[in-house]
Every structure is written in structure tokens, then in C-alpha cells.
Amino acid sequence: MPSPWLPSIAYPPTGPGFWDPVTSTINWCEEDYYVTIYSAEIVNTLTNLLFMFLACKGMLSCWKQGHDTIFFVSFVGYLLVGTGSFFFHATLKYPMQLVDELSMIYTTCLMCYATFSYSKSRLYSLILALSLVSLALFITLYYHYLQDPAFHQNAFALLTIVVLFRSMYVMEVNIRPYLRKREEVHKNQQQEGTVSKDEKVQQDVDDRRDEKIIKSMWFMIGWGLSIFLGGFGIWALDNRYCSNLRAWRREIGLPWGILLEGHGWWHLMTGTGSYFYITWCIWLRHCLNGRQDEYELQWPHILSLPEIVKTTKSDKTSSTNGVSKKGQ
After folding, report:
1. How far, CA to CA in Å, does 185 sit from each of 192, 202, 248, 304?
2. What is the pTM of this model?
3. What is the pLDDT of residue 233?
């Protein structure tokens, strides 16, 4: 019975669905077919629409702003993750489960290539690409053989950690030490009298700009990672306390019980965190290419979605921290 102190309606009973029987190797905490016979897990299905929206937003931004092709392809993979997850939770069929879970592996491998191949030789990039393809193929075949979701979860977590920390390493090694080294060169040039007053002013402006950019990057990383890890924590609690959550949902009724669908929150939060990560990588790539004056972060406030956009002439003269003032 729904709670008498909260306006709600009782949960409908579960029943057979259009896509029966269930063939997936895992079934999440949301009850099956309680709203419609056409979607096994309605909340887990619909929350994937955010994945699809963010993927399309990212692809459109890559196309309009001229970002590297690897990031457009990464957003395509991101779209495949959301689409595969949509159909997996709607049907609970094993083939759709593979599309959902393996596309997560493939997209992470794409980001791994983008991170590790930067400024490397063509031969190194080719060997890296073949290695990642081989790794993805191994994970695919071995996962299909084991049919153990824990293997996929561990493989995805390990790849994600490697890519994230490698990206942080690239940012620090290629930007922060470069700034310190450049400041030493500037100091020596000034002492030797080989730099003009105008050049010194411009060098100081560039140094302050880049220092503010890297601070903004760390804030963006921290916020996106907090959202992602928050989703992971809710996912873990949803798995651990499923029986309690199901009882509480039926006690408070609909629509409030939807707020206790932990796997749905996992979709919303990890999808948002992943979007932050890819966007940060786009910005990092432009900065590594020395294009700080051509691109900037447009992120009016922390509850909005960040985007890397081309600067305008007025932006170049009015902003030196790499963060757009639009909307602020």
C-alpha cells in the first residue's frame, strides 16, 4: 500500500512482457514489466535518453567547432552505449546486453587511443591501435565465454582508471612543467636583454592564461569525477539493498518510488560524468596543440553542461583564462 501521507498511486503488479523470456545474464533491481508490457525496466530504459542526448550534443559540437575526429568517433561510441543500454533494459535479451556492455569497452578503448597516441609516431599509433583492437576482441570473446558480468565490470573499471590517470599525467607533464620551464627562459631572456617590453607583457599574459586554464581543468575534472563516482556509489547500494529498495518503493508508491531506482541514477550520473571527461579531453588536446587562444571552455555554472567552442575576436581580447564569460 502506498504511504497515506504522500499523494501517490500503488505500484501495478508485475506480469509477463512482450519480450519474454528473459535471456540476459543479469537482471537489475527494478521490477519487470510493471508499467508496460513493452519495456521490462521502464526507468532504466528511459534514463538512457540522456546518453543519447549528450552523445548527439557532443557530435554536433565536434562538427561545428572543428574538434579532432577521434572525439567525434568517441561520441558515436557514447551514443552506441546509450542505445544499446536502452534496448537491453527494454528487452532483457542477451544480444542487447552485449551491445550495451561491450560498447562501453570499445568507447573506452577509443579514448585510450586518443590519450596514448598524442604526439607519437605513426608506427607507434598503428601498434597501439592494433593492440587495443586485440584487447577489445579478447574481452569480447572471453566475456562471451564466461558470461560473467563481474568480468565486464572489472575490465571496464580498469580501462577507465588507466585512461583517466593517463590523461591527468599528460595534462600535468605537457602543460605545467612547460609553463615553469618557459618562465625560466623568460627570466633569462629578460636578464640578457634579448626580449622587448611588449614581448614580456605578452609572455606574462600567456602565462597567466595558461595557469588559469589548468586550474579550470582540475575543477572540471573534480566535478565530473564526483558525479561519476556518485553514480557508481548509488549503483553499488542499489545492488546491495535491492530487496529493501523494492519494499520502500511499493510503500511510497508512484511516482515517488522512481527516485529509488538506483540503476537509473547510475545512467544519469555516469552518463554526465563521461560527457565531462570527453569534453575535458577535447579542451586538453587543443591546449596541447597550442590553440588556447582559438578555443575556450563555455561553462556558465556547475549545473550546466560544458562545451569547448571557438573564440571570437572580442573573446580573445576580453578573456585570458580560457573560460567563456558568456552566460556569467
Report:
1. 11, 14, 64, 39
2. 0.86
3. 95
